[in-house]
């Protein structure tokens, strides 16, 4: 999927570029992103540069796919979406949006695009999204994108201070 652009006319997924780092840095100053995404705190421009360069390199080598979520008219970075894997028949999706991009259905559209290309180009059978129980917005994205709630996994992750946290899992499977 190196170099591939995906678009539905409202949102575009494109490969990360080094010059996206300032937009990532700015977005990650919002307290909602580090609340639910394990990014360094404080988040620096150097961290953003590492992220975009690491995501671009990871997308080139695979099997994961990492994209900037952008405005198709302006190419402005609105967020990030990644598919981790596939490993065997499974893969997972993670995403975040900058504050100004939230509430417009853009994450749902981005997830749908990535699901379609994943099922169309990989042997993936099962795709999952996990969310912090407190991240209700992200759970609604998964539901609107066609994922079904699978249940809560207790102590699935460990937060920044070492406290176990529960996660809600959503799943979709390749259509028969």
Structure description:
This protein is α+β, with helices and mostly antiparallel strands and 176 residues long. The protein has a single domain, classed as Aminopeptidase. Helices cover 31% and strands 33% of the residues. It contains five helices and eight strands. The protein has helices at 21-27, 32-36, 45-61, 106-121, 136-144, and strands at 6-7, 12-14, 65-70, 77-87, 90-97, 126-132, 148-158, 164-173. It has an eight-stranded mixed sheet with strand order 1-2-3-4-5-6-8-7, with helices on both faces. A hairpin with a 2-residue loop joins strand 4 and strand 5 (90-97). The mean pLDDT is 95.
Topology:
Elements: E1 6-7, E2 12-14, H1 21-27, H2 32-36, H3 45-61, E3 65-70, E4 77-87, E5 90-97, H4 106-121, E6 126-132, H5 136-144, E7 148-158, E8 164-173
Parallel strand pairs: 5-6
Antiparallel strand pairs: 1-2, 2-3, 3-4, 4-5, 6-8, 7-8
Helix pairs in contact: 1-3
Brief synopsis:
The protein is of the alpha+beta class. The chain is built from five helices and eight strands, in the order E-E-H-H-H-E-E-E-H-E-H-E-E.
- What is the CATH topology classification name? Aminopeptidase
Amino- and carboxy-terminal Cα gap: 24 Å
How are helices and strands ordered from N to C? EEHHHEEEHEHEE
Strand arrangement across the biggest beta sheet:
1-2-3-4-5-6-8-7
CATH homologous superfamily, by name? Gcn5-related N-acetyltransferase (GNAT)
Number of domains: 1
CATH class: Alpha Beta
Sheet of most strands: 8 strands, mixed
